[in-house]
């Protein structure tokens, strides 16, 4: 018996290429994810990270294999609004204030106004944007916009937070700050997080486990437990243990 919350079993994905040939994006990927775990999918561009995330989110059907979430299908989980998704670019509506952007999914779900207002306050608080609710997206920096994306994804209180390279368009300083802040949000919300990145230090800093994917075709080449103490702050990046994890993962890419 496995105590996994998400079971990914022998998932393969082939896209149809221009000339009808198969483009194999994932080959026989199996992975168990535990409840409340922070897991990263790490690998170079083209190794199938987004494909795997989209299959988990029911945005894409695998060619073969299955994903099961506490006995339910991704589709059932999606229909219950249990996924919160954050993409690389937060796709905010320019003509809506930050509050009204965060409100969008709740409006669609028909959540009453009073409840919406109180949740927006809570979310702004959570991501540290208390003073920016009545601003418009263009008035915010890239890092702040990404915080809005996170707040919006969490507004419906999903069980699973799926994040696809959410910080890769940000500068290094902003990225490290958001890494720290994301851990603080995670420790307050206890979501299961699946975080896609191609940045090794970022995956080490954030995760309980790093799943290393290698390309052509995408497959799991290593799974590394990150036994760094929590709560983690950016100073941990300067410790020998941190360097050792980064080096270990980097080595696992050699010879790929
Ligand atoms: P990653 O997110 O790790 O960069 P992707 O999951 O986006 O990787 O892509 C994995 C592989 O599948 C790549 O070779 C990519 O070119 C290919 N691919 C992704 N989406 C499609 C698609 N819609 N049609 C054809 N090939 C695709
Ligand atoms: Mg991708």
Structure commentary:
The chain starts with 5 loop residues before the first strand and ends with a helix. The protein is built from eight helices and nine strands. Helix 3 (98-108) runs parallel beside helix 5 (142-154) and helix 7 packs across helix 8 (240-253). It has a domain at 1-81 and 190-256: 3-Layer(aba) Sandwich (Rossmann fold), CATH 3.40.50. The model has no long low-confidence stretch (mean pLDDT 95). A hairpin with a 4-residue loop joins strand 8 and strand 9. By secondary structure, it is α/β, with parallel strands linked by helices. It is globular. A six-stranded mixed beta sheet has the order 5-6-7-3-8-9, sandwiched between helices. It has a three-stranded antiparallel beta sheet with strand order 2-1-4, covered by helices on one side. The protein binds adenosine-5'-diphosphate (ADP) and magnesium ion (MG). The site of magnesium ion has 2 residues, from helix 1.
CATH topology of the domain at 1-81 and 190-256: Rossmann fold
Order of strands across the widest beta sheet? 5-6-7-3-8-9
Q: What class do helices, strands and sheet pairing give? A: alpha/beta
In N-to-C order, the SSE pattern is EEEHEHEHHHEHEHEEH
The whole-angstrom Rg is 18 Å
Mean pLDDT: 95
In this structure, how is the largest beta sheet organized?
A: 6 strands, mixed
Determine the N-to-C terminus distance: 33 Å
Strand percentage, roughly? 15-25%
* CATH C-level label of the domain at 1-81 and 190-256: Alpha Beta
How large is the count of helical segments?
8
Task: Tell me roughly what share of residues is in helical segments.
Answer: 25-40%
Give a count of the beta strands, DSSP E runs of length 2 or more.
Answer: 9
**CATH homologous superfamily descriptor of the domain at 1-81 and 190-256:** P-loop containing nucleotide triphosphate hydrolases
CATH architecture group name of the domain at 1-81 and 190-256: 3-Layer(aba) Sandwich
Bound molecules: adenosine-5'-diphosphate, magnesium ion
| Low-pLDDT runs | none
User: Which geometry do the CA atoms define?
Assistant: globular
């Amino acid at each position: 018996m496995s105590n996994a919350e998400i079971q990914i079993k022998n998932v393969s994905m082939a896209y149809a290429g221009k000339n009808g040939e198969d483009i194999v994006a994932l080959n026989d990927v199996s992975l168990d994810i535990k409840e409340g775990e922070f897991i990263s999918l790490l690998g170079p561009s083209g190794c199938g990270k987004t494909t795997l995330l989209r299959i988990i989110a029911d945005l894409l059907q695998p060619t073969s294999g299955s994903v099961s979430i506490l006995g339910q299908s991704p589709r059932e989980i999606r229909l219950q609004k249990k996924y919160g998704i954050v993409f690389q670019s937060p796709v905010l509506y320019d003509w809506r204030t930050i509050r009204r952007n965060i409100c969008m999914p709740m409006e669609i779900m028909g959540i009453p106004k009073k409840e919406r207002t109180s949740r927006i306050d809570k979310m702004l608080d959570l991501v540290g944007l208390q003073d920016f609710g009545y601003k418009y997206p263009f008035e915010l920096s890239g890092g702040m916009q990404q915080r809005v994306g996170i707040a919006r994804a969490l507004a419906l209180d999903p069980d699973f937070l799926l994040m696809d390279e959410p910080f890769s368009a940000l500068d290094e300083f902003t990225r490290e700050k958001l890494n720290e802040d994301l851990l603080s949000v995670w420790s307050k919300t206890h979501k299961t997080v699946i975080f896609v990145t191609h940045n090794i230090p970022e995956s080490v800093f954030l995760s309980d486990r790093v799943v290393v994917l290698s390309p052509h075709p995408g497959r799991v080449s290593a799974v590394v437990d990150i036994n760094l103490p929590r709560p983690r702050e950016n100073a941990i990046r300067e410790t020998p243990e941190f360097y050792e994890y980064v080096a270990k993962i980097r080595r696992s890419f050699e010879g790929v």
